[in-house]
Amino acid sequence: MHAIGNRELDYSLVDLNRAGIPLAECVSEPDLRTPEEAYSYLTQIKSIFQYIGISDCDMEKGSLRCDANISLRPVGHTKLGTKAEVKNLNSFKAVKEALHYEIKRQMEVLNTEGRVIQESRLWDEARGVTESMRSKEEAHDYRYFPEPDLVPVELKADTLAKIRTGLPNCPPPRKPDSSTTLSCQTMMPPSGGRPVPGRVF
C-alpha cells in the first residue's frame, strides 16, 4: 500500500487483511472455443466451489477473478496463434464480452496482415474495448523461476483414479441423479444461488 484513502505515503505498508486466506488457481487447457463456452465453464466452476464450500465466489468482493487468454488460428490448422491475456475480469458477463471483442480485434489485425502481440490487456467495460496493459513477448517477461520452497509433485494415474472414486458427487452429476430419484426438477439451486439445499439429499 502506498496510500491510505487520499493521503499519499512516503513509505510502503503491507495489507494483512487477507493474510492466511489460500488462493486456488484453476488453469484450463486451451479447450474452449467460444466466449459462450468460457461463460459456461466459469459458471460450472463457480457452482462447484460454492457447493463444496471453499468460496462464496463473490466477484464484487474479489473472492473470484478471471484472466482470459485468447488466440486465433485459421480454419483447418491445429497450431494456435499468438495469445493475448485479458486481466482481472470481475464478472462472467465481462469475460464473455471481452472475449467477443478480442476475437473481432485479433481478426482485424490478422486480416490486414498485422501481427498479434503477446500481451496483457485490460477490459474497459464502459467503452466495450480492451486496452494494452503490458507486453509479454518473451518468457523472461513473465519472471518465471522455480519456487525453492515448493518441490515438484507428480501423481501417478492410479493415484488420481483412486482419489476420484472417493470424491462426492458435485452439482453436474448430482442434479440429474436427484431429479430422477426424487422427481424433483428444482432441488439444486440455479447458478449463483445458495447450494445448501442440495446437501440435504
Key attributes of the depicted protein:
201 residues, 4-stranded mixed β-sheet, 5 helices, 6 strands
Can you walk me through this structure?
The chain is α+β, with helices and mostly antiparallel strands and 201 residues long. The chain has a domain at 25-140. It has helices at residues 35-52, 92-111, 157-165, 171-182, 196-200; strands at 3-4, 7-8, 66-70, 84-89, 119-124, 129-135. The protein starts with a strand and ends with a helix. Mean pLDDT is 80; it is low at 186-192.
Write the layout of secondary structure elements.
Blueprint: E1 3-4, E2 7-8, H1 35-52, E3 66-70, E4 84-89, H2 92-111, E5 119-124, E6 129-135, H3 157-165, H4 171-182, H5 196-200
Parallel strand pairs: 4-5
Antiparallel strand pairs: 1-2, 3-4, 5-6
Helix pairs in contact: 1-2
Name the shape in a single word: globular
As laid out across the biggest beta sheet, the strand order is 3-4-5-6
Could you give the order of the helices and strands?
A: EEHEEHEEHHH
- Overall structural class, as computed from helix and strand content, comes to alpha+beta
Strand content: 5-15%
Output the radius of gyration: 21 Å
Largest sheet: 4 strands, mixed
Alpha carbon gap, first and last residue: 46 Å
Helix coverage percent: 25-40%
Q: Flag low-confidence runs.
A: 186-192
Number of strands: 6
Gist of the model:
This protein is 32% helix and 14% strand.
